[in-house]
């Protein structure tokens, strides 16, 4: 099918099935373009829970679709490509987290939203890259096991010095690849550019940045900052939203390119098939949903500073 016909069919099916299409900022442009909502993972899941629809099609990776199911248990949640996973999330398992928690004794498990649903069921609090510092700062517990991203965890530890933060040895392969050499080269080539990076990036990259924040945080920093050029340290799918919101500004990804292959698995054909055949449905039992919801609700009760 031609691309335009495919897009029309997707929109027709979406209407017929009373579905909503969510796209993470790292999805391919065609998917971001046709989505009802673009955003960060948890923000998308929460937005979709407020929409009156029967089906949520989550164009992202598995943990994101699982989170959408946890917050919208009565809706059918679909992930268009069954094996779109997240290597970072897969670096922490429920059993390994429980074992580490036992070794450490009295700790609160704070899980980044980038965890599989079974890890959320044994977590005390959930957090996002946008609120991780605030969550760890505000909770009553003084000792924290931060799962699974060691770079984000280290960033939190640097900001919340009054707490003991134990790190998990996980990392996002996409952000871990950013090198200081590549960043310094970009700075030499674009000396007036501001540097905005995601906290999943290594410390040397974060320490050289003008701004550290979530994907949404980077997008609003670029919008608000009075500069013409930006060196960006996150997955290049963000360029779609950056160019849309700040068309006159110029962007350079550290190292020239940064791609999460899992985020790029969903093509328009997959989205079409997902809507048509209603696959691949996320199925979670009630107990898992209830237990995974608790750390998310506890996170939402923490006041923002
Ligand atoms: S960019 Fe990193 S954290 Fe995000 S889905 Fe890909 S591997 Fe996972």
Please write out the topology:
Elements: H1 3-16, E1 19-24, H2 29-34, E2 37-39, H3 41-49, E3 55-59, H4 62-71, E4 76-78, H5 94-104, E5 108-112, H6 117-120, E6 125-127, H7 132-138, E7 143-147, H8 150-159, E8 164-167, H9 173-176, H10 180-189, E9 194-197, H11 203-207, E10 211-212, H12 215-224, E11 229-233, H13 238-245, E12 250-253, H14 268-277, H15 286-301
Parallel strand pairs: 1-2, 1-3, 3-4, 5-6, 5-7, 7-8, 9-10, 9-11, 11-12
Helix pairs in contact: 1-14, 3-4, 4-15, 12-13
User: Strand-and-helix sequence, N→C?
Assistant: HEHEHEHEHEHEHEHEHHEHEHEHEHH
> What are the segments in which pLDDT stays under 50 over at least 5 consecutive residues?
none
* Anisotropy-based shape: globular
Please give the CATH architecture of the largest domain: 3-Layer(aba) Sandwich
CATH class of the largest domain: Alpha Beta
How many distinct helices? 15
In CATH, the homologous superfamily of the largest domain goes by the name NadA-like
Q: Give the strand tally.
A: 12
Pick out its properties.
305 residues; alpha/beta; Rossmann fold; 3 domains; four-stranded parallel beta sheet; globular; binds iron/sulfur cluster
Structural description of this entry:
Helix 4 (62-71) links the parallel strand 3 and strand 4 (76-78). The strands form three sheets. This protein has a four-stranded parallel sheet, with helices on both faces. A four-stranded parallel sheet has the order 6-5-7-8, sandwiched between helices. It is built from 15 helices and twelve strands. Helix 3 runs parallel beside helix 4 and helix 4 (62-71) packs across helix 15 (286-301). It is α/β, with parallel strands linked by helices. It is 44% helix and 16% strand. The termini are far apart. The protein folds into three domains: 3-84 and 263-284, Rossmann fold (3-Layer(aba) Sandwich), CATH 3.40.50.10800; 89-171, NadA-like (Rossmann fold), CATH 3.40.50.10800; 174-253, 3-Layer(aba) Sandwich (Rossmann fold), CATH 3.40.50.10800. The model has no long low-confidence stretch (mean pLDDT 97). The protein binds iron/sulfur cluster. Iron/sulfur cluster is lined by residues 26, 61, 86-88, 114, 172-174, 235, 260, 262-263.
């Amino acid at each position: 099918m031609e691309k335009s016909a495919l897009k029309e069919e997707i929109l027709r099916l979406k209407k017929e099935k009373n579905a909503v299409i969510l796209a993470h900022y790292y999805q391919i442009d065609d998917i971001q373009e046709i989505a009802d909502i673009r955003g960060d993972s948890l923000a998308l899941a929460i937005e979709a829970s407020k929409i009156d629809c029967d089906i949520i099609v989550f164009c992202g990776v598995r943990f994101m679709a699982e989170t959408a199911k946890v917050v919208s248990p009565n809706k059918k949640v679909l992930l268009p490509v069954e094996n779109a996973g997240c290597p970072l999330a897969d670096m922490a398992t429920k059993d390994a987290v429980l074992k580490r928690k036992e070794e450490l004794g009295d700790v609160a498990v704070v899980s980044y939203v980038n965890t599989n649903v079974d890890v959320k069921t044994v977590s005390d609090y959930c957090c996002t890259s946008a609120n991780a510092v605030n969550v760890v700062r505000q909770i009553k517990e003084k000792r924290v096991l931060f799962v699974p991203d060691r770079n984000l965890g280290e960033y939190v530890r640097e900001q919340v010095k009054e707490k003991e933060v134990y790190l998990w040895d996980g990392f996002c392969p996409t952000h871990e690849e950013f090198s200081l050499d590549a960043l310094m080269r970009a700075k030499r080539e674009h000396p007036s550019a501001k540097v905005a990076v995601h906290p999943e990036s290594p410390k040397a990259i974060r320490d050289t940045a003008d701004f550290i924040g979530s994907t949404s945080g980077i997008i609003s920093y670029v919008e608000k900052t009075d500069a013409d050029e930006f060196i960006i340290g996150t997955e290049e799918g963000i360029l779609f939203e950056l160019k849309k919101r700040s068309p006159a500004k110029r962007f350079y990804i550290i190292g020239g390119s940064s791609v999460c292959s899992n985020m790029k698995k969903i093509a328009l054909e997959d989205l079409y098939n997902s809507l048509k055949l209603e696959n691949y449905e996320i199925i979670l039992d009630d107990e898992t949903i209830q237990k995974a919801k608790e750390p998310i609700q506890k996170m939402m009760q923490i006041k923002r500073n």
